[in-house]
Amino acid sequence: MNVDDLLTALHEVVKSRSYIIRLELMDQSVNMLKARLFIDPDLFVQVYRNDQFDTTNFVLIYNRQRIYARDRLGGRWHRHIPSNPDIHDKSEEGRRQVSLYDFLDEVEIILADMNLP
After folding, report:
1. Running DSSP on this structure, what letter comes out for residue 77?
2. Could you list the residue range(s) of the whole structural domain that residue 16 is in?
3. How far apart are CA 93 and CA 19, in angstroms?
4. What total of structural domains would you count in the chain?
5. How does pLDDT run along the chain (117 residues), one tens digit per residue?
6. Is the dihedral of CA 102, 105, 106, 107 positive or negative?
């Protein structure tokens, strides 16, 4: 997924996932994109992509705290699990490549488990 693909996906998920109340494009260039998908004023998914460095970050944030994340750094994926979001999970599941759609599917499960909107 490159910046253009991610931008297209962001607009698609806003239309297809009713719990997303707003898309905020925070920064964008030819090779970089940073955006937020708001679920609630204090609950959002932050998305970052840098094509030049092959870096992707999907982060679920609640009350200014990371709850869950999946990161691609230098071509390798890892995740930050809800029970310990500061640890890098590099297990087979943690290393699995995900799309924005996959990440949002995981977010929906986490939000349901945590009784969040």
Report:
1. E
2. 3-113
3. 26
4. 1
5. 899 999 999 999 999 999 999 999 999 999 999 999 999 999 999 999 999 999 999 999 999 999 999 999 988 999 999 999 999 999 999 999 999 999 999 999 999 999 998
6. positive
